[in-house]
Design brief:
With 504 residues, this protein is mostly helical. It has 17 helices and 13 strands. The strands form six sheets. The protein has a three-stranded antiparallel β-sheet with strand order 2-3-4, with no helix packed on it. It has a two-stranded antiparallel ribbon with strand order 1-13. The protein has a two-stranded antiparallel sheet with strand order 5-6. A hairpin with a 4-residue loop joins strand 8 and strand 9. It is globular and about 60 Å long.
Amino acid sequence: MNAHMLAGRVHSRPLAVVAMIGLAGSLWLSGAFLRAAAAEAQTPAASQDRQDATTSYLPLIETHLQQLTTSGLDVYGPKQTGMWMAVIDTRTGKHPEFEHTPRRVYRKIGAPRGSSLYWDQPMIVTAYRLSQLTGKREYAAAADRYLRDFLAVCVDQHGLFQWGNHCYYDAFEDRAAPFSGGYHELRPHAPAWELFWRQDAAVCERYLRVMAGRHVYDPETGGFNRHDDAKRGHAFIESGGVLVESLAWLYAKTQDRELLDLALRIARYSFRHRGETTGLVINEPDFGRWDSKVCTTEVAVWGNSLLRAAAATGEEEFARMARDAVAAYLKFGYDEQAGKYYGQLSVIDGRSVAAPQRGYWPRMYAEIWNPDQWPTHDYPLAMAEACITLHRQTGDPVFEEGIRRWAEIIRRSPQADRASAYAEQYGRCIAFLARVARALGERRYVTLARQLADEAVVRLPENGWFQGSPDSHLYEAVDGVGYLFLALLELETGESAAGWGGEF
């Protein structure tokens, strides 16, 4: 059965292995690790995996991109653009005619009436990658047009991009639509800055400098706020990581030492707020809420940003802070009896902290397939990815132990846990397992990655579209279909889509 036939029978066929696809790398390699990954991709084992491939995921991905970049465009207001709609009804191929707010995120983060380039970045990278693989220029051209149109209508008078967690582009009103205070806020993903630099380097540089000035309320100490009001507020470490990585990336472009120094001060600000005896880094040190007393897997989002900052700048202090912060979580975080990592740890004594109820915070354990409204300050796959990078960098067995534990957690997860899984969760698991296979030289992890990939391409496609989660009948940008596509392309080619900045 080919991939197109499989997609057409998504609701009637039982889950089964449908493709044998080649060994992959990671979506999130950086710096020197990219060269090592490229070399590993050419090993005999990797080559054999690619030779074993009998069915391609490429047609499924290409069909989705063809539809998204034609019938999924902004055609709903007086002014039409090349931006892609963030929500598509996969039964009609159009924006829903009913009132709908994406359920994965709270407020209007999912851009219910328009486009959100912040969440579309993995799909943009997929479009460029698809053009490279197929030789068809139209996907890259559609991505170029999206970026150009965004820069034309979503940059304010100060040079700040109007996007992120408090603003999207309303395709019906033809304007940026701020909500819930309209703050500038980027979390948890560091943007793929190379996309914007290639379009307009001056606009990109101006934005990054303005962003830093508006989020850092104390340049001397590196004190920052997730919101751009230059006041003391919520210094989420994931937001700090975005700032650090972004400034480090711009330093690599400009060699402006002030950018690097500020990035270091922002990183030190978070690292300074950690338990005296545990070394656990506080999620948010400034506001006195629940997250000012605990450490979660969010520390790995921050750590991965610092590792990429180190790769971009050559500044080893970033890597040392990331290493120590991740190692502290691994030391205290694992429950041997349950075979899981805890969701929250007290920074004072390292003991687990149980949330009184479900909400926008981690559950008792860090849950890979958590369907709760997101972001919940819980990023288990970021912690898993950090273990691989730090194992490669240091050889420390504590990180290998972390790799194996996270892989085992994925292996043991029952299918029931994935009943409402999001595409991004599938993609991150697939990419992580493929990296584990390379890092440890154990091909059984490739088999597990393939099994998850095959499951995803059975459960998510509908009428040529990929749904963000099974049986939702909706493609939503915030659900991370782009992350899944990048993982599938790596499985097929053995090559990463790295080089775009951020996670890409």
